[in-house]
Amino acid sequence: MEIIHAVHVFVKSLLFLLLWSNCEGRESEHNHVTCGSLVKLLNTRHNVRLHSHDVKYGSGSGQQSVTGVENADDANSYWQIRGKPNRPCQRGAAIKCGQAIRITHMKTGRNLHTHHFSSPLSNNQEVSAFGENGEGDDLDVWTVQCEGIHWERDEDVRFKHVGTDVFLSITGEQYGHPIRSQREVHGMSTPNQHNWWRSMEGVFLQPSQVPLRHDEL
Amino acid sequence: MATKGMTLCNVCCLLLYVIAAVLAGRDFYQILGVSKSASIRDIKKAYRKLALQLHPDRNPDDPKAQDKFADLGAAYEVLSDEEKRKQYDTYGEDGLKEGHHGSHNDIFSSFFGDFGFMFGGNRQQQDRNIPRGNDITLDLEVTLEEVYSGNFVEVVRVKPVAKEAPGKRKCNCRQEMRTTQLGPGRFQMTQEMVCDECPNVKLVNEERTLEVEIEQGVRDEMEYPFIGEGEPHIDGEPGDLRFRIKVLKHPLFERRGDDLYTNVTISLVEALIGFEMDITHLDGHKVHIVRDKITKPGARMWKKGEGLPNFDNINIRGSLIITFDVEFPQTQLDEQQKEGIQSLLKQSSVQKIYNGLQGY
């Protein structure tokens, strides 16, 4: 009886160990969006990617316009995920849900930005690209809203603006010439089906080891 | 008889040893030029350096170039994987279970990018008529510690890849002028969109891992290109992915070329009577400073060889320049202390008036 009991305990602990070891290693950074990464953001309701270019709004603030495009192969749809002004995030660290970030347009170095101006087509809040070389002002900061701990790559998230509390959204209005068929991107105050975004193509930095330190003997 | 037996024994042993050495397989550590205790970073660094040297395109006259290059790939594949390295260390090359997985091309392109390697040649000089996808440039922030010791950044690239799809599609679309005849002697020229017919493709997102090296001594704005890892073009070649180095400011050290500058504040007492201290360098080693003379405010100390490694030759290092400033006592002195200092220092009153600005 004693032997049977011992074997029973042994098998139980072995199974537990196997189960536990299988759960480890799942938290690899390979599926997270990390600080310093370049991403394309897809609006899942309207199937267009967040985009900007050297074209200014003809109304509102007159700043650089931000739109949604159907193409999947335009480098002008790449945005870099960076930390808040004066608080850089560590390269390769996974972005946490609720973390405040800046979203910088790769080609023009301007930050995703919104302010109290009306958007040209739908009269929601205008979203522009603002700043120079990655530096703008406090209205460049957004928080990532998602479930769980970290922003996962194949997860739908929302972007809420710190400062005006609107959500980055698209409701389908289309521009004419010279940016024909591109969609208007604006800020809306309510979370709904129009403000879900997912990271698609990109260059995702993984966390590095700290360079070796050795003390002289 | 004994000696004959001995010689036979020796010959047998030698033969056995030679056979064993041949059968035991390749020495991967020797191929990479690293020690048995090399870190994964050392291995990656060694591979990257040798891959550039040994690539067959770079050695067209060497008949063994292909083999040497293949050996290099095999060595990296085993030593860069923890499991395989352990097996290799214990059992040798024969002890490795399965055959090689990825081709050497996969390994090579994770360090340099895809699409046929160009040695020194300009990609633009190829066929100018082949349309090319956009280039992507990522600003990669690096710390001064990484500039000093080097590092590798692993990157996951998710990009659309063209896959076969059923049916046909329009490709190579272009505007052409067409002349149509409206009547006798009357023609009209119109612009028309003309396309070819190509096999249909769809773009599917695929992932691959790239290794970016932060080389020792790397300078701000230097770029590391990965050929073909940029945006795809459905009718042509993909563009390139470039990592542009941005060296971050450091709280303790300022970089000027290969030299490092730092400041130390010492007390008035230390400035007068001397002191001893350690400065912890970027890789943790300590720079020892001893001073037994008077140190004036603004005095500089040069420590040769304690700067950054030079990018072109990492055996050459710059200097560490330390500038001292003096912190005077915070509390005012009482009469007794004033008299004491007067008598101790025996410095007569100076009170020399002069123009210190001289137009600046």
TrEMBL record, chain A:
Keyword Transmembrane helix: no
Domain MIR: 30-84, 92-147
Keywords assigned: Repeat, Signal
InterPro entries in alphabetical order: MIR_dom_sf, MIR_motif
UniProt-listed Gene3D superfamilies: 2.80.10.50
Superkingdom: Eukaryota
Principal location class: secreted
Alphabetized PROSITE patterns for the sequence: MIR (PS50919)
Compartments, as annotated in UniProt: Secreted
Signal peptide span: 1-25
One term under GO cellular component: extracellular region
Protein name from the UniProt record: MIR domain-containing protein
Organism for this UniProt entry: Perca fluviatilis
Biological classification of the source: Eukaryota, Metazoa, Chordata, Craniata, Vertebrata
UniProtKB/TrEMBL annotation, chain B:
Pfam families noted in UniProt: DnaJ, DnaJ_C
Cellular compartments per GO CC: endoplasmic reticulum
Signal peptide residues on this chain, from the entry's feature table: 1-24
Keyword Glycoprotein: yes
Keyword tags: Glycoprotein, Signal
PROSITE patterns registered for this protein in UniProt: DNAJ_1 (PS00636), DNAJ_2 (PS50076)
Listed GO biological process terms: protein folding
Highest taxon above the source species: Eukaryota
Domain J: 27-92
A GO term for molecular function: unfolded protein binding
Function of the protein: As a co-chaperone for HSPA5 it is required for proper folding, trafficking or degradation of proteins. Binds directly to both unfolded proteins that are substrates for ERAD and nascent unfolded peptide chains, but dissociates from the HSPA5-unfolded protein complex before folding is completed. May help recruiting HSPA5 and other chaperones to the substrate. Stimulates HSPA5 ATPase activity. It is necessary for maturation and correct trafficking of PKD1.
Protein name stated in the entry: DnaJ homolog subfamily B member 11
Species per Swiss-Prot/TrEMBL record: Perca fluviatilis (European perch)
